[in-house]
User: Fold this.
Amino acid sequence: MAKSNPPFMSGVPELLLLRLLQTREMYGYELVRSIREVTGEAISLGEGVIYPVLHSLERNGSLKSKRKPVGGRTRVYYALTRKGRDRLAKLQGDWHRIQTGIATALESPGHA
Assistant:
């Protein structure tokens, strides 16, 4: 049975999308598959989550999109902008800081 993503995942889709688009442009369903693949299937985000985040990132200037014909139809490919690279750097820094803090808390003995 598929597990649902926990509530603390807020912000993770944006981080993953920006990270995947850092190396090359991709289209929506390709991003959905790639997220599952790069996370070892620990995170599975459907189009209903991915597309609103992509559209929001495009509106704020972090992504740009272009339509390309593929096999008689068009796909929308997304690519990172300079603003998107800056946003990714900030999110990665935030994530590492939080990850370190949580790991420290989980590894330390309880306080009385």
